[in-house]
Design a protein that fits this description.
Number of strands: 16
Radius of gyration: 38 Å
Shape: elongated
Strand order of the largest sheet: 7-6-5-8-9-10
Distance between the termini: 99 Å
Number of helices: 20
Structural class: alpha+beta
Low-confidence stretches: 40-71, 99-124, 134-255
């Protein structure tokens, strides 16, 4: 390039710009600035546009990254709000679900207050208000408001029903159940918020708002921009109740690892020279066997304290002699056989069979006291309770009466005393029960006694049937206080029996105490088959007592016995002087019921004893007949009597037992040995599950209901579980 070319080039660069081009450029810049100002004016504050100023009107022509955000700032703000709300909804829902699964309950509320369902409702309604205000500014994109769950209107339960102690002058309150609001056939079964609406305008406004709120279709823009939020909303709607009167609860209550049993120490071996007399009360409870069965069917061994040897043995009926008349309501049967686990020792089997009611049965006044708290919300709890009560109705006479009381956060009457001939009214009341709330068990017990006492059947049976998992957490729940109350109330002629249900928070210790001090029986219902056994097949023995305060005392002969051990009955041991004291309470026996007790003894001429001879103390002189191992005495009271009667007989060294007696004794020993093994086998030596299995197989005898065959299978399952 020469000098002339350079000169021409500089002249072109220094040339003045075209005025028309300059004018168009300035106009375009001002127009873009005005557009940006107009967009910003629609915002509450600031400029939400992420673009820098440009003469180009459409960034999507050359920058694809902006294609997803060409909508207005309003829509982008809405999307970010939905994303935040979705995270909150998922977080709160997860926290609530975790709380339900770990067994924690919502805190109790004041009786006159009504609150919203949960934090989920608050978050969703905040999003709804924001959406309503934003939707008016942009009709093109109107996503659906999240569907709010129904309001949680907690019952105005008064949790202090018994907080200051049990007062007989108190009057029970109507129990506001969670039922169909349109059904008014039972006054007590009305919607929980009826009473609250009278006292709280806030509740009425909240309900009206929930009812008036409309639902809109889900918009495509919302579905595309916030799928996570939509999924969270759907999950919240699925978990929430559909009506305003329902309580949010988990579908299946789970609270594992809190089963409570009283710790017991196995009866020790005793020297006859030191303690020749053994005294105890009979026990006809059977809950230990049912709970053991449930655990083994799950493939695990039950905890040791759950095994009560006497309850395992007495679960089965035995062929003992049946008394002929009601004045002598039972007879005793004694058998002496070799102990299978310790050579040289003997087992003394004492069998009692109650008088059977054949033609007439006394009139029955029953109160079903049903736990409907939140912990009962499980298929093996409240639903099984209702099925069991239906079965019991089939065992009653048309003239018998049934009342239904329930308790959760408070107690109330669902059904006043109603003749069984009006069976449909009773079934309708049962069908309406739902689980939810805390557990004011003491208030329910007090109310049940009030109902029973108000409808006493003179000369008949007056009994409360308590169905619960035993998880009392409102009002009085101290076992000693409840025990004292039940002890006082049994003087009125109303007895208390307990049916245990469920697993995970099953309180056997409390239910045993209530039944023992309420002159009743404690059983555990784990299946419909067990409900059939207890409430139908053995209904007479469950409901109709034929003898009260039955005590057993055995005095061993030091001339023939050196040591003895009572198998089971650890919680029923009595002092020697209590045997003749009619003021001391003991167990009752029902019509047709059989009771079995076992003693392991060491004959004096045997070398199988547990104790060694003392070096320094000389053995005490022994006197007594060489034909007797001991002397058996029983005391009992007939129903309604205050003075006990006595039955006694010797225990011979040589017995002429019939084949059926030996078979029944050996089967009872197989059950007792199985129970000993489940508790650790402290006194069974090398005798194991296979030995128990063979002994049970060889002595099953007649088994019309299959109970003994079931035991054989359970022993096999215990073998497997023990090997794992």
């Amino acid at each position: 390039m020469n000098e002339q070319d350079l000169k021409r080039l500089f002249e072109q660069i220094d040339a003045k710009p075209d005025e028309s081009v300059k004018t168009r450029t300035v106009a375009a810049a001002l127009s873009a600035y005005d557009d940006a100002q107009n967009i910003g004016a629609r915002k509450d504050q600031g400029n939400g546009d992420i673009h820098r100023l440009s003469t180009k009107s459409n960034f999507s022509e050359d920058k694809p990254m902006y294609q997803a955000s060409t909508t207005t700032a309003t829509r982008r703000w809405l999307y970010s709000g939905f994303a935040s709300a979705a995270l909150l909804v998922v977080g709160v829902y997860t926290a609530i679900l975790a709380t339900q699964q770990t067994g924690f309950e919502l805190p109790e509320l004041e009786p006159t207050k009504s609150v919203q369902s949960s934090e989920v409702v608050k978050v969703e309604r905040s999003v709804e208000r924001a959406m309503d205000s934003l939707a008016s500014s942009e009709q093109a994109a109107r996503p659906e408001r999240l569907s709010a769950p129904a309001q949680l209107a907690l019952q105005p339960f008064e949790a202090d029903a018994l907080a200051s102690g049990i007062d007989d002058r108190e009057v029970s309150r109507d129990f506001q159940m969670q039922v169909d609001p349109s059904d008014h056939s039972i006054d007590a079964l009305r919607p929980p918020t009826v009473g609250a609406e009278k006292d709280s305008g806030v509740t009425r406004k909240a309900q009206a708002a929930a009812t008036a709120r409309k639902r809109e279709p889900l918009g495509e823009a919302y579905a595309a921009a916030a799928p996570a939020s939509a999924a969270a909303a759907a999950a919240a709607r699925a978990a929430a109740p559909s009506t305003i009167n329902e309580v949010i609860t988990s579908t299946d209550y789970r609270d594992m690892g809190r089963d409570r049993f009283e710790t017991i120490e196995t009866n020790p071996i005793r020297r006859v020279s030191d303690e020749p007399i053994s005294t105890f009360s009979i026990d006809i409870d059977t809950s230990s066997y049912s709970f053991m069965r449930r655990e083994l069917n799950r493939g695990v061994l039950p905890q040791k304290d759950a095994i009560r040897l006497e309850e395992m043995v007495n679960y089965f009926p035995y062929e003992y002699p049946v008394p002929d008349k009601r004045e002598a309501p039972f007879s005793t049967d004694i058998a002496v056989i070799d102990a299978p686990w310790r050579e040289g020792n003997k087992l003394v089997r004492i069998g009692i069979k109650g008088y059977e009611l054949r033609n007439t049965r006394p009139q029955t006044n029953l109160v079903f006291l049903l736990d409907v708290s939140g912990s009962m919300n499980s298929p093996d709890k409240l639903p099984l309770v209702k099925q069991s009560m239906r079965m019991l109705l089939t065992s009653l006479q048309p003239v018998d009466t049934v009342a239904i009381a329930v308790y959760a956060g408070a107690a109330g009457t669902v059904l006043e005393p109603t003749p069984v001939r009006d069976k449909q009214a009773i079934l309708n009341a049962l069908d309406r029960l739902q689980a939810g709330g805390a557990t004011a068990g003491a208030a329910g017990i007090k109310l049940a006694y009030q109902l029973a006492e108000a409808n006493l059947a003179d000369g008949g049976v007056n009994r409360i049937i308590l169905a619960t998992d035993g998880d009392f957490n409102i009002g009085i729940h101290n076992r000693e206080e409840l025990k004292g109350f039940v002890e006082r109330k049994r003087q009125s002629g109303v007895f208390l029996s307990v049916l245990g249900f469920g697993q995970g928070n099953y309180n056997n210790a409390l239910m045993q105490s209530l039944a023992q001090n309420g002159n009743g029986v404690a059983t555990y219902i784990d299946t419909l088959g067990e409900a059939q056994k207890v409430l139908v097949t053995e209904a007479t023995s469950t409901l109709f007592p034929i003898a009260a305060d039955v005590k057993v005392q055995l005095e061993f002969n030091p001339a023939t016995v050196s040591e003895y051990r009572l198998l089971g009955y650890e919680t029923r041991i009595l002092a020697e002087e209590d045997f003749n004291n009619d003021a001391v309470d003991a167990g009752d026996i029902g019509a047709g019921h059989s009771v079995t007790a076992l003693y392991e003894i060491t004959p004096r001429d045997s070398n199988s004893g547990a104790f060694s001879d003392s070096r320094y103390s000389e053995p005490k002189p022994t006197e007594g007949s060489l034909d007797e191992y001991g002397y058996l005495k029983l005391r009992y009271k007939l129903p309604g009597e205050e003075v006990s009667r006595l039955i006694s007989q010797p225990i011979p060294v040589q017995t002429d037992d019939a084949a059926i007696a030996l078979q029944e004794a050996r089967f009872a020993i197989a059950v007792a040995g199985f129970a000993e093994l489940l508790r650790g086998g402290k006194y069974t030596g090398d005798w194991g599950y296979q030995d128990a299995l063979q002994l049970a197989l060889d002595n099953r005898g007649e088994d019309p209901f299959g109970y003994r065959s079931e035991l054989v299978q359970l022993i096999r399952k215990a073998q497997v579980a023990d090997a794992m």
